[in-house]
Amino acid sequence: MPKNLGPCNVLNCEAKDVLFRRFTKYGLSNDIIEDNLIANDDIIEDNLIAIEDDNINTEFKLSELLKSSIDDNMINLDNWSNINVEVQDSVVLLSKSHFNCLITKIKEMQIKVNEYENNNQFRNKFELLSALLYKRQRNLNLNIELDPEDFKNMIEENEPKLKGFFDELIYIFLTSQTHNRSENVIENAKKSLVGFCYLLAGLKNQRNNSLQLEIGLYLSASGATVECIDIMSRLGISVCYKILERYKKVIFSKHNEKINNYFEENTEKLIPFNIDDFHGIYSFRQPNTTTLSTACHMATCVSKTIKDSKAVPAYVDGIPVHNPKNIEADRIIKYLNDEYFSSLSISYNEKKYSWLKNNIVTFEQFDRLELLIKWV
Length: 376
Prior knowledge:
Elements: H1 25-33, E1 58-61, H2 62-69, E2 84-88, E3 91-93, H3 96-139, H4 148-158, H5 165-174, H6 183-204, H7 210-221, H8 226-234, H9 241-265, E4 269-270, E5 273-280, E6 296-303, E7 306-310, E8 315-316, E9 319-320, H10 329-344, H11 348-357, H12 368-374
Antiparallel strand pairs: 1-2, 2-3, 4-7, 5-6, 8-9
């Protein structure tokens, strides 16, 4: 192709420079994308610009058009190189085969967008869960909820956007364990999943450590050493020993207030109260890193509210509920001899035969002791 020696074809151009450049097909494509090609007829006329091709109808690859309109060089547009677009003045033409290819690629992009949004949705839900657990611990001073069903109801009632989130976790982590497994195994797996939620929330925010505090207290009460508790803290399972000691002091300072509030809130309910004295003098005297001796002298006080049971009134029809004779040893001996000893003296095999005789094949674990006395 001969060199362009001029003259310049732009109207009213007085430039004396001898260097000239042709207005190429590539320059035309850039101007089409930027909507700057021949925008004003008063400045440039159609026949005043020299173009390499006499035919202004040109064909471009879609990837070239996208690259000219996108500044981000990190985007890979090679996937669009097999789609050709024909530009004819203000009309864009696309063949049927290339149009179908374009639709297919758009669908593929939409699938990837949906996957990205689902991943973000899971992350956003977990952030909501972490914020909710933090609020319950730090702002409302509420205890942790380890029952799977209660935990699910708690998060859904307090944050409607978490509705179905715990079921989604069960589907992800426990689907393979539900086949040919007993209900107890599945229930224990759900409890582990609840603990997993608390531990992950603690990894996201170190102050969200309600479960880690409970585990640390259990380790300390079980006689775990300082080194053991600190190692569990590094694993994210427990808090460190220093935090645990500070938390113990907080529990001690608020213990009386908490007990008083508990009884005030349940004054209308039946609350059995048990006291148990314990003296463990048979122990190892050799000291270790945490204690000097394992001898124990303590009194355990246990009170538990019975649901759906009202408190026993002190007087019923003028008769006091308390026995004026206090403890009647004769009555205790009489009932033990007449009603209980005769039942307890029966062997387990005889009891088992009576269960089968009365069609008792399965029963709850906590009913077994009662059944030893009930079925004679």
